Structures are given as structure tokens and as C-alpha cells.
Amino acid sequence: MCGSELGSEPLMILENMPASAQDIPLKEELPSDRGIELRLFKCPRCGLYQFDCEPVSYYRDVIRAVGLSETMRELRRTDYAHMTESYGLSGGRFLECGCGRGEFLEVLREFPVQAYGIENNREAAECAAEKLGADHILQAFPDTGTEIFFGGEFDCFFSFNFLEHQPYPKAMLGSMYKNLRAGGYGLITVPSFEYILKEGRYYELIRDHIANYSMDTLKLLCISCGFEILEEGYIGIGDTLRVVVRKFEKERLQGEIQIPEREGTDGIEKLGENYTLIRETVRAFTESLEKRGEKLALWGAGHQGFTIASTTSLKDTVLYIIDSAPFKQGRFAPSSHIPIVAPEHFKAEPADAILIVAPGYAREIRETIEKLYSGAKDSHGRDIKMPEVYKLSSDRIELMP
């Protein structure tokens, strides 16, 4: 973020981590799939926590399974209503940086604005163009900070959990700055590293998120790119940072990030402690199930599930991981190699317990399990016992009522 040297000693080393969250191997690819070591550093100057590895190969692409979630759709509706109403942007031109397959832009079309999107991945961009129209989607990525898209002069841009993937975040935000009119707005969300530290949730870490922002470092980045901060806050279960920014109407403020050097690690010790504690908790949980002769499944083939599976005893005991995203089904979790199946698979191979490993969607998934499996029957017409449902919560595994 600021160009300073990181030093040579990491704060924490995480072993046998998934090599990525989206390169989900097929069966024939399993022999070459291996866990990796991630080394976490903190910049001594700007305070940004980051990994010292290369970014994932697809960091320019948006792969958005949660676009299928009604919880996420409602969150986007709230964002869009707020920007159009609070800042008087009805009728304006809105640009999403990293629009994926147009999932969120479809929701934006419910509002009285002109919706545009850029997406690096060709297939995803074509899919978005089918939904929004070819003149509203561009296959592109802000590599240099100087690109102009659709003629620029946008009233507002959006970036939803995309900035944390970027090895050159100032280029991305610099490009958004260039594409806004004077006084134009932006809404940015990223995962909260403060939340990860507070809760000790090491399993939220993944190579894909090469940069791990706190509110301070996110604001510093935005200010260094010529924006002023209008709003700051936390959304979801506190695991996501959200800022609203505005382009200064005068000439962009050029220059380096100005921040005094910081000392300390802001609670990194708890992250290390939970790295050990969670593995012990999971081991006790799986051993308890084994003693009762009960079988376990996971729900959630996202980065949290992949990390917790590959770094704990779950990799040796879980039957399968359930996920609603079709493009993940039939593949295997990276590093742990647990098969990923559709929700209907449960009826063919019932489990006695399901552990939800997607913390932000635990309640929604719990309701889905109740709807799908309560009173379910197998292929022979026999009743299937409703599984006990657990959720992973910080350093605990909790039974959900």
C-alpha cells in the first residue's frame, strides 16, 4: 500500500493452507494439489497486514458464489438505496469495479440509475452483458490507475470485497478516481482484519486476500488516492468494513501515505492462540462424534471451510462439504480433498451432524437445512433423521437450535 519494506520476520506462519479459494481441484487434479505455507507480515510504516506471496492468478476476476444469497442481495439493496437517496444520485451513472457475472448489477437495476460494470474474466463479462446489455459491460481491469471506462464522469462507483485481492490497490482506486466526476462518490467494502483479530478467526485468512485491511489502513489508502471519507462502519456480523468516499472537487491530492510508524501487533497473539485452540476444539468434537458412531458433513465450500478443513482433523473425518454453488459441486476442497456435493446429496448419503463453516450465513443455512431435510426420505421412501446442526463460532463449536 505504501511501498515500504516488510522485513524478513513474519508475525505468524500458517501451515497446510489452501493454495487458493477458487482453484478447486477435480479428482484427476488431486495428486498435484498441495497445501501451502502463508507468512503474515505487518508493514512497519502504514500498518497494513499482508502476505508476502504472489497473488492468486485470478486476482483480477470476481468469482461470486454469494451472489446467489438473498442475504447478500438485501444488503446490496440497502447500499444502493442509501447512495441514491442520501446523496441525491437518482438518475446517475453507477459503475461496479469487478462486477462478476452481473449478480449485484441486476439488483442495482431495481433503482432509478444507469448501471455499468467492468469485469476482467471474459466468460463472466459475457454473462453480465446478457443481463445488463453489451453497452453496459466492459471486459477490463484497472491495471494502471489511468483507464477511462464508458467515457468516465460517473456519479458513483462500487467495489464489493475486491480490493483485498489486489497487489496494487492504489492503481485500482486511482482508476476509479479518474472515472468519477468532480465530487463523485464511491462505496467500498473489504473483509475486516480487526474482526479476525478480535475473534481470533485464523480460518478467515486465505491467500486470495493478499491484503488484510483495518479501518485505519483502508481509510489511509482512500485518502492517498484523492478521496475524502464521508462514512465508515461495519456490516454483517462485524466482519466487513464499509466506507463511503467522495472525490475531492479540486485537483487530486498526490503524494505518499502519511502515517506515523506503529508499534505492536494489535492482538495478533490471540490469532496465534486460536490457531492452536480451534484445532484442539475440532479434534475433541470429531472424536466425540466418532465415539457415538455418528457421521459428519460440512456446509460451506468457501475459504473459511477450506481453511478449517485443511488445518484440522476435519480433513480426516468429514464425509463431504455441501454447497449450493453448482460450479463447486463435483470438485474437491483444496488441500483437504473433501468432496463437494449439492444439498440433495445428503438424502443419498445422510450425515448425523452438519457443521456450518460459513459464519456470516449460519442462520440462513440453518433455515435451509430445516426446509430441505425435515421430513426428508431416501430413494427407498424411508425417513431420514434430521441432522444435528452446529456452527463454528470463534473458538467454539455450538449446537444451533
Topology:
Layout: E1 12-17, E2 36-42, E3 49-51, H1 70-86, E4 93-97, H2 103-108, E5 114-119, H3 122-132, E6 137-139, E7 154-160, H4 169-179, E8 180-191, H5 193-199, E9 211-212, H6 215-224, E10 227-235, E11 240-247, H7 268-291, E12 296-299, H8 303-310, H9 314-317, E13 321-322, E14 340-341, H10 345-348, E15 353-356, H11 362-373, E16 388-393, E17 396-399
Parallel strand pairs: 4-5, 4-7, 5-6, 7-8, 12-13, 12-15, 13-14, 15-16
Antiparallel strand pairs: 1-2, 2-3, 3-9, 8-11, 10-11, 16-17
If you had to describe this structure to a student in words, what would you say it looks like?
This protein is of the alpha/beta class. It has helices at 70-86, 103-108, 122-132, 169-179, 193-199, 215-224, 268-291, 303-310, 314-317, 345-348, 362-373, and strands at 12-17, 36-42, 49-51, 93-97, 114-119, 137-139, 154-160, 180-191, 211-212, 227-235, 240-247, 296-299, 321-322, 340-341, 353-356, 388-393, 396-399. It has a seven-stranded mixed beta sheet with strand order 6-5-4-7-8-11-10, sandwiched between helices. A six-stranded mixed beta sheet has the order 14-13-12-15-16-17, sandwiched between helices. The model has no long low-confidence stretch (mean pLDDT 92).
